[in-house]
Amino acid sequence: MARDRLRGFGDRVELLQGDFSMLGAIAAGNSWGPFAGILFDLGLSSFQLDDPARGFSFSRDGPLDMRMDRRGAGKTAAELLAKLPEREIARILQDYGEERFAKRIAARIVDQRRDRPITSTVHLARLVADTIPRRAWPRRIHVATRTFQALRIAVNDELQSLTRGLRAAVPLLAPAGRLCVISFHSLEDRIAKETLRSLARSEPPFLQVLTKRPIVPTGGETEANPRARSAKLRAAERL
To answer: For the chain, what is the mean pLDDT?
Structure first.
């Protein structure tokens, strides 16, 4: 889809698919750089969210996959839930989803999988809903949102990949080149903030942070695109 939309720009556009952590290798392998700007857009594609076959959303039933790139040999969310120990499932839900009922959900998953594998999005969403007391359901998001976020992060090793990608990006920038990061939840934003600050405080400093606080969408943006409501933009300049 991107290739079709950008076809009018001819050879000014090159498209390559890869994980954030592969940025340095991709740039070196194609003799790319230095760059005037690098943008990390950490948002999940709406096309992926709306496709039940990808397993990212509980709005429609689909296989519990959650892999960003299904070409590789990485384990699906269903495979993780089938094999991980209860303690590790609880850790993932707590660390990556900040889910206060992580231990209770993990225990319910392990108990459920003894009788029936958890292989569909609706099955998992219902299990979470049945586990968390109704009075404790969040008001603004679906009760299973944090569980789905945590599993997706674990399946794709997202936080470690982001950290490696950000650090690989800085040496690729030209002097005065800009590094921008758009995040969509607190874990990503924390990594972006801490990584940029760390590189700005090093000796010698590599970056100057341009955003003391993250830039957030305007009311008009969120009205036009509700999924942008949680976006935060941070930026830095290469010294």
So the answer is: 94
- CATH 3.40.50.150 assigned to domain 2-46+159-238? The reply is yes
Element (H, E) at 48: helix 46-49
Query: What pLDDT score does 140 carry?
Result: 84
Question: How far apart, in whole angstroms, are the C-alpha atoms of residue 51 and residue 46?
Answer: 9
Rg of the chain in Å (alpha carbons)? 20
CATH fourth-level superfamily of 63-156: Putative methyltransferase TM0872, insert domain (1.10.150.170)
Amino acid at site 25: A
Q: One-letter amino acid identity for 205?
A: P
Q: What is the mean pLDDT of residues 68-86?
A: 91
Domain boundaries, the chain: 2-46+159-238, 63-156
Give residue 84's pLDDT.
97
CB 76 within 8 A of CB 154: no
Coil vs helix vs strand at 24: helix
Average of pLDDT values for 143-160? 95
Residues with Cβ within 8 Å of residue 111, at least 6 apart in sequence: none
- What average pLDDT does this structure show over 104-108? 98
pTM of the model: 0.88
How far apart are the C-alpha atoms of 224 and 9, rounded to whole Å? 27
Cα–Cα separations (whole angstroms), residue 208 to 144, 211, 235: 39, 9, 9
Secondary structure (DSSP) of 60-99: S--BS---S-TTS-PPPHHHHHHHS-HHHHHHHHHHHH--
52/59 Cα distance (integer angstroms): 8
| Band of residue 49 on the pLDDT scale cut at 50, 70, 90 | confident
